[in-house]
Amino acid sequence: MARNGKYAEGRERRPPREFSVVVIVAFAIMGLATLFQIIALISDSWVNTVTDADGTVGSAGLWRTCADYAGIDSCRGFVWSDNQVSHWFRTVQTLEVIGFLFGAVALFLFALYHMVEMCMDNRVLKLSAIGLLMLAFLLVFCGTIVVASLKDVQKAIELPKTEAVVSWGFGLSLTASILYLAGGVVVAISPQP
Fold it and tell me: Cα–chain-centroid distance for residue 104?
């Protein structure tokens, strides 16, 4: 590149790209949603098993359950003997993972639309990002509704007078679903690059 700001072939250097506040907010919302959903997916704290006497005695996530009671501190993967529980739980896992993937792909498509020059005129990328964000919202939100309604089945340990309560992993996933929805709205109103 020559010192006068031109490339050796005579092309002008492009000025640095500036993003509108709406686009920055859209990236922030989608990034947070993706981060929250990743943390929720790997967390073992979607449903806590609680007793009045001992407090939290166990927790369950989407992939394993952990007991912490009377010196027993162990985690194990889910092994369900009841086929009905097995089916609904696999459905929740599927909804949550596919919702995450849709949200991550939407973030990638929106980045292409705003950062890659040859993609900036391609409105299909923006529309695809909006559609994927709405689908991510629906899938993740439906998964959290199922977990909340069937939380008693997920007790980490069976003791008398135990109760199942949703925990922070569930909360992060629910928050991610709302952020996916908000991201879809912000992407829809974002200006063209």
Answer: 8
List, for residues 161-178, the tens digit of each pLDDT value: 888 889 999 999 999 999
Calpha distance 70→115 (Å, rounded): 55
CATH architecture observed for domain 32-189: Up-down Bundle (1.20)
- Of 131, 85, 139, 143, the residue nearest 105 (C-alpha): 131
CB-CB contact of 142 with 94 (8 Å): no
Above 70 in pLDDT, residue 6?
Answer: no
Give which of 46, 53, 74 is closest to 174, Cα–Cα.
46
**Extents of the domains making up the chain:** 32-189
Residue with tokens 């689908």: 135
Q: Token pair for residue 51?
A: 């007793």
Residue pLDDT, tens place only, 103-151: 999 999 999 999 888 888 899 999 999 999 999 999 999 999 999 998 8
Element (H, E) at 76: strand 72-77
